[in-house]
């Protein structure tokens, strides 16, 4: 998809605030700082529409971005950020679970993992959660610009194995720095719309 129009529609914390439209939605899940907001910006050719930051935990709400009047990207707050209180974490869990398990418009989840490292226990748990609810997942390995190309396949194999990845799900090697995987990611997303 070649995107010319994209806008933040709403930052929501509860279902009453979700946009009241039948448009398909693609959610972005992943650890804090993995590159979810950067992924959105790359796919829509915009530097700073989705807020990014060196500070983890920047995205705290479900941010709905309307893309070409055709779909919504839903930027989900990252998990695995240590400096968050138990109460905050429980609130986060409830908000995410409510959205991921109850939203009819949700067609697939882009699950982002840092390509440099083996997926964390949180990453595995998120993937298993999505599979339990039978959601199609596109696994996106971010920050590939930080790994030499010759090691990509090895890192990819480690990630797929650790996640016990469903062969029906798509795997994309990605970088918001080099735009590696942008077309492959769009192709996977469009297959679910
Ligand atoms: N080198 C490199 N840096 C990246 C890439 N993607 C994101 N970053 C950097 O990683 C940091 C976090 O990126 P964000 O897109 O804000 O991450 P996020 O997952 O939205 O983080 P939260 O909103 O806190 O959950 C920023 O400093 C980005 O510039 C990438 O592909 N390559
Ligand atoms: Mg973010």
Automatic annotation (TrEMBL):
Pfam families for the chain: MMR_HSR1 (PF01926)
Domain EngB-type G: 22-193
Cofactor: Mg(2+)
Gene3D superfamilies (alphabetical): P-loop containing nucleotide triphosphate hydrolases (3.40.50.300)
Signal sequence segment: none
GO annotation, cellular component aspect: cytosol
Superkingdom: Bacteria
Classification via HAMAP family: GTPase_EngB
Protein name, UniProt field: Probable GTP-binding protein EngB
Protein species of origin: Vagococcus acidifermentans
Name of the gene: engB
């Amino acid at each position: 998809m070649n995107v010319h129009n994209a806008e933040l529609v709403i930052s929501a914390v509860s279902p009453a605030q979700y946009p009241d439209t039948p448009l398909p939605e693609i959610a972005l899940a992943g650890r804090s700082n993995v590159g979810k907001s950067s992924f959105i910006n790359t796919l829509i050719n915009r530097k700073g529409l989705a807020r990014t930051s060196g500070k983890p935990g920047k995205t705290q709400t479900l941010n709905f971005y309307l893309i070409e009047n055709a779909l919504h990207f839903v930027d989900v707050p990252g998990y695995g950020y240590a400096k968050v209180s138990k109460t905050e974490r429980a609130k986060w869990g409830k908000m995410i679970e409510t959205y991921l398990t109850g939203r009819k418009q949700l067609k697939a989840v882009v699950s982002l993992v840092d390509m440099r490292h083996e997926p964390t226990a949180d990453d595995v748990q998120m993937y298993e959660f999505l599979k339990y609810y039978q959601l199609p997942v596109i696994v996106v390995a971010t920050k590939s610009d930080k790994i030499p190309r010759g090691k990509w396949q090895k890192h990819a194999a480690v990630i797929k194995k650790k996640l016990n990845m469903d062969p029906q799900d798509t795997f994309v090697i990605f970088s918001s720095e080099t735009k590696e995987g942008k077309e492959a990611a769009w192709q996977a997303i469009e297959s679910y719309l």
